[in-house]
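Quick start: read one record
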Amino acid sequence: MSSRPLRRFAPAALLAALAHAPLVHADVTTRDDVTTRDDAGNTVTLPAPAQRVISLAPHATELVYAAGGGAKLVGTVTYSDYPAAAQAVPRVGDNKALDLERIAALKPDLIVVWRHGNAERQTDALRALHIPLFFSEPKHLDDVSSSLRRLGTLLGTQPAADAAAAAFTRDIATLRARYAARPPVTMFFQVWDRPLTTLNGTHLINEVFELCGGRNVFASLKPLAPTVTDEAVLAANPEAIVTTSAGATRSNEPLPSLARWRAWPALTAVARNNLFAIDGDLLTRPSPRIAQGAAALCEDLDTARARRPAR
């Protein structure tokens, strides 16, 4: 990663680099243009398939590779570690600060932005570069397939993107068919423990829970990622408690532990030893690998079913 400090505002050197940055006029199209919509509903038009791409989120990096555009990546951000080839791509910052000078110097013709993960101030600075932005934020499992196809359009890698999208759709359909009729399992998903945080029923990951027959005990709460109390979890008495474990990504912060719940041996999830941890990279990144995270969760919930006392 560059040793230069991360900059939020464009210095004189950046202004010079901007002189060479491509300008895009959305109202001018030709027969060679490629056009699609991003997850913010914006129309993204390129004069030709992108050849130099920057990804500003780990999940977006995975989508670009899966869509067949990995060789076109010239920059990405911290924690973009999958596939292995992504680890060699130059870093241009993280979700807190971007090196705008370096982004401009790399002369990308497409930047894939995490719609809500990249701060609005950073997004405004990116718009000033006059480089096409594709906002990525899949909100449903089907959106992963759609994202692959739309990126394939912009990258000029449609056959590879279509194949990846079809494979993902197939994997999810297989899991849905296998677990649709299984008895439901009430579950608490612990995102973090300081403060105790979970997800509500509108989050994409909740769709994974439902795919496996999981019933989120806090699905009805209003915030997307609500904080809850130990007492609320005890009152809900979930049959299983699930959290994330370290996958390819190594965080500076220890991942949330489930050991705290053993202080309440009468809690059903504890009494039956249904405390599960799943590779966080597989479960929390809306990329094709979320199908692997779903498969792991489905197996854990099946274990919980098997541990039910005989009637």
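The first strand starts at residue 34 and ends at 37.
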